[in-house]
């Protein structure tokens, strides 16, 4: 009989197990795509400042909190309680909603810049794509976290 590395029902991974279990395997792609949104939006001219300020807030907020969440799980500070499973679901659901709103705002602003400088327009298009990829990653993570919380 082959050995399995699956998590038992009612437990949260800790240490390097977060690199092999769903939904926690999404942490690294969330950090990468969220960081790319942050970098791409920061590298362009901020015009208009209010919606792009929201996009920057979302990308920085989610990047920092996701990084802290990874540290908590790697360190094992969550102690396998159902409260942490619920908080994991709530955070990733909120992050998905934030990224969706930021992606829509960024897409709207990018459509208005169609006639502007081509390089900035291309950077904004890349930021929009990465924002929607981050939205999808956070949404999938939230759904899988909800399933894990339900089975906890």
Topology:
Layout: H1 27-42, H2 49-75, H3 82-112, H4 118-150
Write structural notes for this entry:
The protein is mostly helical and 152 residues long. The protein has one domain (15-150). It contains four helices and no strands. α1 (27-42) packs antiparallel against α4 (118-150), α2 (49-75) packs antiparallel against α3 (82-112) and α3 (82-112) runs antiparallel to α4 (118-150). It is elongated, with a radius of gyration of 17 Å. The two termini are 26 Å apart.
Could you tell me the mean pLDDT? 84
Largest sheet: none
Q: Indicate how many domains the architecture comprises.
A: 1
Rounded to an integer in angstroms, the radius of gyration calculated over CA atoms is: 17 Å
What percent strand? Answer: under 5%
Helix content: over 70%
Distance between the termini: 26 Å
The poorly predicted ranges are 1-5
Element pattern in H and E: HHHH
Q: What is the number of helices?
A: 4
Structural class: mainly alpha
Shape: elongated
How many DSSP-defined strands?
A: 0
């Amino acid at each position: 009989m082959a050995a399995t590395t699956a998590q038992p029902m009612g437990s949260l991974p800790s240490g390097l197990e977060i690199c092999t279990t769903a939904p926690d395997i999404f942490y690294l792609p969330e950090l990468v795509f969220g960081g790319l949104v942050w970098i791409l939006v920061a590298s362009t001219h901020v015009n208009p400042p209010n919606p792009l300020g929201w996009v920057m807030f979302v990308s920085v907020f989610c990047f920092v909190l996701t990084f802290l969440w990874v540290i908590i799980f790697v360190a094992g500070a969550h102690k396998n309680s159902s409260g942490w499973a619920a908080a994991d679901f709530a955070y990733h659901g909120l992050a998905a909603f934030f990224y969706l709103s930021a992606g829509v705002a960024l897409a709207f602003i990018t459509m208005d810049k169609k006639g502007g400088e081509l390089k900035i327009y291309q950077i904004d298009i890349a930021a929009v794509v990465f924002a929607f990829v981050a939205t999808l990653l956070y949404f999938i993570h939230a759904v899988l976290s909800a399933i894990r919380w339900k089975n906890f």
